[in-house]
């Protein structure tokens, strides 16, 4: 893949070859400088000059084509890198009461203007997505890929692809300090003193969204005995 450094090197090479071609053309004698017979003699005794000029021109044309391809590749790469770390969609800055009501119903919490609405809307859009081990999109997703997708789309942050690795990207926070967007960690065997092995995203009021193996992405609460017994901690992703 061409980098910007490579592009600049090709540009320099192209300019040099073009200069060589120009100088070669200027080196040929003209009738204003010598007589016709002298020009004939010059061309006869130096038959390689036209071939050399054509060779230089061909090299210059090839280099220019490579340069154009390099520029297109570099621009496409830069665009892809920018899109990989930016939110996918522009989001509105104000919301209607009907939107609050709709989100409240979907997420099973009371949503108001002080909440992280961008997060809540993105989370709601994943509800019902089936579980798929190593899945990464709305056709099927696992717990860590779901969290990664939410963080990338809402906050422009790229997280790791395993729950225990995401745990390593977080600082622990107490339950009283937990806020929307924090990660909520569990251990499937109830080993709450060990590194967690699955996780969800906290919303508010002890409610979170998580990917379950049987029912896919869904809303759950710490009032559920299973999650209460397997709860490890809340984590806040470091900047």
Find the CATH topology of the largest domain. endopeptidase fold (from Nostoc punctiforme)
| Largest β sheet strand count, sense and barrel closure | 6 strands, antiparallel
- Separate helix tally: 8
Instruction: For the record, give the distance between the C-alpha atoms at the N and C termini, rounded to a whole number.
Output: 31 Å
**Relative strand content:** 15-25%
The CATH class designation of the largest domain is Alpha Beta
> How many DSSP-defined strands?
8
- Rounded to an integer, what's the Rg over CA atoms? 32 Å
Strand order of the largest sheet: 3-8-4-5-6-7
Instruction: Assign the CATH superfamily of the largest domain.
Output: endopeptidase domain like (from Nostoc punctiforme)
**Uncertain residue segments:** 21-44
CATH architecture of the largest domain: Alpha-Beta Complex
Average pLDDT value? 80
Shape: elongated
Helix proportion range: 40-55%
Order of helices and strands: HHHHHEEHHEEEEEHE
Instruction: Domain count, please report it.
Output: 2
Structural class by secondary-structure content: alpha+beta
């Amino acid at each position: 893949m061409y980098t910007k450094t490579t592009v600049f090197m090709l540009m320099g090479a192209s300019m040099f070859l073009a200069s060589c071609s120009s100088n070669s053309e200027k080196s040929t004698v003209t009738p204003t400088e010598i007589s016709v017979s002298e020009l004939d003699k010059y061309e006869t005794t130096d038959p390689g000059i036209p071939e050399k000029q054509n060779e230089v021109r061909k090299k210059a044309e090839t280099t220019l084509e490579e340069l154009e391809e390099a520029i297109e590749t570099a621009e496409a790469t830069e665009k892809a890198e920018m899109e990989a770390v930016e939110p996918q969609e522009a989001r509105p800055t104000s919301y209607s009461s009907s939107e609050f009501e709709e989100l409240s119903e979907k997420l099973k919490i009371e949503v108001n203007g002080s909440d992280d609405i961008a997060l809540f809307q993105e989370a709601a859009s994943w509800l019902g997505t089936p579980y798929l081990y190593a899945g990464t999109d709305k056709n099927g997703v696992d717990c860590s890929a779901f969290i990664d997708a939410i963080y990338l789309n809402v906050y422009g942050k790229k997280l790791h692809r395993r729950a225990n690795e995401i745990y390593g990207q977080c600082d622990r926070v107490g339950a009283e300090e937990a806020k929307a967007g924090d990660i909520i960690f569990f251990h499937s065997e109830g080993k709450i003193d060990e590194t967690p092995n699955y996780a969800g995203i906290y919303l508010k009021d002890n409610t979170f969204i998580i990917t379950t193996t049987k029912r896919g992405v869904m809303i759950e609460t710490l009032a559920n005995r299973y999650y209460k017994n397997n709860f490890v901690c809340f984590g806040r992703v470091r900047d």
